[in-house]
Specification:
Chain A is built from 12 helices and no strands. Chain A has a domain of 207 residues: MetI-like fold, CATH 1.10.3720.10. The chains are: A mainly alpha, B mainly alpha. The interface between A and B is large, with 42 and 51 residues.
C-alpha cells in the first residue's frame, strides 16, 4: 500500500480508496448473509424511523388506551393489547426507536473511547501505552450487569445512564483490539516513509493509521451494536431502564410483571422478544459478512 | 507469575475503590432514601446515620470501609439487618450449582458440536449448528428463560414455574426438577460461543503440518481427530471456559430473576428495589472478585498448558 507522495494532494489516495470501497461493497453484497442482514436492518430502521407516521405516540399513553385488555391479535390490533389496552404494535414500533437508538449511542460511546485509547496507546508506546493498557485491564474485569445495577441505583434511571454504563463496560475490548492493530500498522513502510518526509504525529495518525484501522473499527461497530441492544434489553427487564420510555426490553419486563407467561398472553412477549432477536441476528450477519470481506486484506502482511 | 498475582491485586484494589466511591460520592444521603417519604423524625435518622457510620468525613469512611472489607466485614443489609457476608454465603450455593452445571453442559455440548461441525465443514450439520448458535446468541438470556417458562411450565405443565423447591415438599429430586429450566436456559444461552470458537480453532489446526504427517502415517480419521487435532485446538476453548466461569456468575442475574432461583442473582435484583446499598456493594465485590480470580487462574493455567506462551 503506497501513500500519496505529495503531501496535501490526497486526491490520488482518495480515488484509490473510493475504488476499494466499491470493491468491498460488491463483495459484501454477494454474500447471502450480508444481503439478508442488511435488508432486515433497513426494514427495522425504516419502521422505527417512520413510527410517528404509522401510529401516533398517544398510543403509548396509558390513560388514553382504548383497546380491550390483554387481547390476542385481531384486525385492529395486529399484535394484540397489553394490560392497559394499548396496542402492542404501537409499543413495538416506538420501542424499536429506543432500543435501536440506545444500541447505537452506546456503541458510539464505547467505540469512541476505545478508539482514542487504543490508537494513542498503540502509537505512543512506552509508558503511556503501559499505563493506558493497565487502566484498560482494570475496566475489563468489571462485570457489566453488576456495574449497571450499581450505577442505575445511584444515578437516575434514564437512557443516558444506560448508554453510559454500556459504553463504560464495552470500550476496553475495542481499545485492546485497536492497540494491537495500530502497533502492526505503525511498523509498515508507508508510515516510515511519511515520517521520513517530515510528517508530524497527528498527520501520520490522521492520514495513514486511522484509514488503515477504519475497516476494523467498522466491523467492530457492527458487532458491538447487537451487544449494546442485548444489554439494554437486560437492563430494562430488570427495571433499570427509563420508566418513562418504552423499549423492547421494557415491554418484556411489563409482560413478565403482568404475568403474561402464566396468562397465556403470548403476543405480549413474543413480538418484542423476536424483534430483539431479528435485529441482533441481522447486525451479526452483517458483521460476519463484513469480516469475511475485510479479512483477506487484514491478512495481507 | 508473581507479576500476575500483583496485577490481580491491583485490579481488586481498583474494584474496591470504585465500589466505595460509586455509592458515597453520587448518593449523598443513603439514610434519606431508605424511608422513601415516610415520616421519620430527624433524631431517628441521625441515630441511623451514626449507626451506619455515615456521620464521619469521607476519608475516614473510606479508611473504615477498606479496613472492614479486608477483614471480611461487608456491612449489614439495610433490608434484612443480617450481615451482608452471611446473606451472600447463604445465596452462594444455589448460584454455584446453577452456574457450574450449566457452564459444564454448555461447554461440553458446544465443544462436541464445534468438533463435528469443523470436521464435516459446510455439511448440513455444520450449517445447522452455526444457525442454532447464532440464534441462541441473538436472544437475551432472560428471554430464552421466558420462552421456556411459557412452554414447559405454563403451557405443558411439565416443570415447576419457579423457586428451588416445592414449599410443602422438597428434597433433592424436587430441587433437581426446579433446576432443569434455569439450567437449560443458561446452557442454551452459552453453548453457541463454544461451538463457534471450537469450530474455527479446529479449522485452523486442521491445516497444520503435523496433521498431514499423521494422516500420511496411515492413521484413521477418527484417531487423527481425537489424538492430534482436538487437543491442540482445545486451548482457546479452555481459556473461554475459565473466563466464562467468572462472567456467568453475574450473567445469572437475569435468569435467576425469571425463575426466582434463590441465588446471588435474585439477591441482586431484590437489592435493587431498596436500594439495599450494602448488599449491592457486597455483591458487586463478589462478582468482580470472581472475574479477577478466574482471569488470574486462566492466565496461569494457559501458561502451563501452552508452552509457547511465556509466563512473564
Amino acid at each position: 500500500m503506497t501513500s500519496a507522495t505529495v503531501p496535501g494532494r490526497g486526491s490520488i489516495t482518495w480515488t484509490r480508496r473510493r475504488r476499494a470501497a466499491a470493491a468491498v461493497w460488491k463483495q459484501y453484497w454477494s454474500s447471502t448473509q450480508g444481503r439478508a442482514g442488511l435488508i432486515i436492518l433497513i426494514l427495522f430502521f425504516g419502521v422505527a424511523l417512520a413510527a410517528p407516521l404509522i401510529s401516533p405516540s398517544s398510543g403509548l399513553d396509558v390513560t388514553q388506551a382504548g383497546g380491550p385488555i390483554l387481547h390476542s391479535p385481531t384486525a385492529g390490533y395486529p399484535m394484540g393489547t397489553d394490560e392497559f389496552g394499548r396496542s402492542i404494535w404501537t409499543l413495538f414500533i416506538w420501542g424499536a426507536r429506543v432500543s435501536l437508538a440506545v444500541g447505537i449511542a452506546a456503541t458510539v460511546v464505547a467505540v469512541g473511547i476505545g478508539t482514542v485509547v487504543g490508537v494513542v496507546a498503540g502509537y505512543a508506546g512506552g509508558r503511556t501505552e503501559g499505563g493506558l493498557m493497565r487502566v484498560t485491564e482494570w475496566f475489563l474485569v468489571i462485570p457489566f450487569l453488576p456495574l449497571a445495577i450499581v450505577l442505575a441505583s445511584v444515578l437516575s434511571r434514564s437512557l443516558f445512564t444506560i448508554v453510559l454504563v454500556i459504553g463504560i463496560t464495552s470500550w476496553p475490548g475495542i481499545a485492546r483490539l485497536l492497540r494491537s492493530q495500530v502497533i502492526s500498522v505503525k511498523e509498515r513502510t508507508f508510515v516510515e516513509r511519511a515520517r521520513a518526509l517530515g510528517a508530524g504525529n497527528s498527520r501520520i495518525i490522521g492520514r495513514h493509521i486511522l484509514p488503515s484501522v477504519m475497516p476494523l473499527i467498522f466491523a467492530n461497530l457492527t458487532l458491538t451494536v447487537p451487544i449494546a441492544i442485548l444489554s439494554e434489553s437486560t437492563l430494562a427487564f430488570l427495571g433499570l431502564g427509563d420508566p418513562l420510555r418504552v423499549s423492547w426490553g421494557q415491554t418484556l419486563q411489563a409482560s413478565f410483571d403482568a404475568g403474561a407467561t402464566s396468562l397465556g398472553a403470548w403476543w405480549y412477549y413474543i413480538f418484542p422478544g423476536f424483534g430483539i432477536i431479528f435485529v441482533v441476528l441481522a447486525f451479526t450477519m452483517c458483521g460476519r459478512a463484513l469480516e469475511a470481506v475485510l479479512n483477506p486484506r487484514l491478512r495481507d502482511r | 507469575m508473581a507479576r500476575r498475582v500483583f496485577a490481580a491485586l491491583l485490579s481488586l484494589i481498583f474494584v474496591l475503590t470504585l465500589n466505595f466511591f460509586l455509592f458515597r460520592v453520587v448518593k449523598s444521603d443513603p439514610v434519606g432514601s431508605l424511608f422513601r417519604g415516610r415520616n421519620v423524625s430527624p433524631e431517628a435518622k441521625d441515630r441511623l446515620r451514626t449507626e451506619f457510620g455515615l456521620d464521619k468525613s469521607l476519608p475516614a469512611q473510606f479508611t473504615a470501609y477498606m479496613g472492614q472489607t479486608l477483614r471480611g466485614n461487608l456491612g449489614v443489609s439495610y433490608a434484612t439487618r443480617r450481615s451482608v457476608g452471611s446473606e451472600i454465603l447463604d445465596k452462594l450455593g444455589p448460584t454455584l450449582v446453577l452456574v457450574g452445571i450449566s457452564t459444564l453442559l454448555s461447554a461440553a455440548i458446544g465443544v462436541l458440536m464445534g468438533i463435528k461441525a469443523a470436521w464435516q465443514r459446510n455439511s448440513s450439520f455444520d450449517r445447522g449448528s452455526t444457525a442454532a448458535s447464532m440464534l441462541t446468541y441473538a436472544a437475551p438470556d432472560f428471554y430464552i428463560g421466558i420462552l421456556l417458562l411459557a412452554i414447559f411450565a405454563f403451557w405443558l405443565r411439565w416443570l415447576p414455574t419457579g423457586g428451588i423447591e416445592n414449599p410443602d415438599g422438597g428434597g433433592l429430586f424436587d430441587q433437581a426438577k426446579h433446576l432443569i429450566l434455569p439450567c437449560v436456559t443458561l446452557t442454551l444461552g452459552y453453548f453457541g460461543e463454544y461451538a463457534i470458537i471450537m469450530r474455527s480453532s479446529l479449522l485452523e489446526v486442521v491445516n497444520e503440518d503435523y496433521l498431514v504427517t499423521a494422516r500420511a502415517k496411515g492413521l484413521r480419521d477418527a484417531l487423527v481427530r481425537r489424538r492430534h487435532a482436538v487437543p491442540n485446538a482445545v486451548l482457546p476453548v479452555v481459556t473461554l471456559f475459565a473466563i466464562n466461569l467468572g462472567f456467568v456468575l453475574s450473567g445469572s442475574i437475569a435468569v435467576e430473576t425469571v425463575f426466582s432461583w434463590p441465588g446471588l442473582g435474585l439477591a441482586t435484583s431484590d437489592a435493587l428495589r431498596g436500594p439495599d446499598y450494602p448488599m449491592l456493594q457486597g455483591l458487586f465485590l463478589v462478582f468482580s472478585g470472581a472475574i479477577i480470580l478466574t482471569n488470574l487462574a486462566t492466565d496461569l493455567i494457559y501458561g502451563y498448558l501452552d508452552p509457547r506462551v511465556s509466563t512473564s
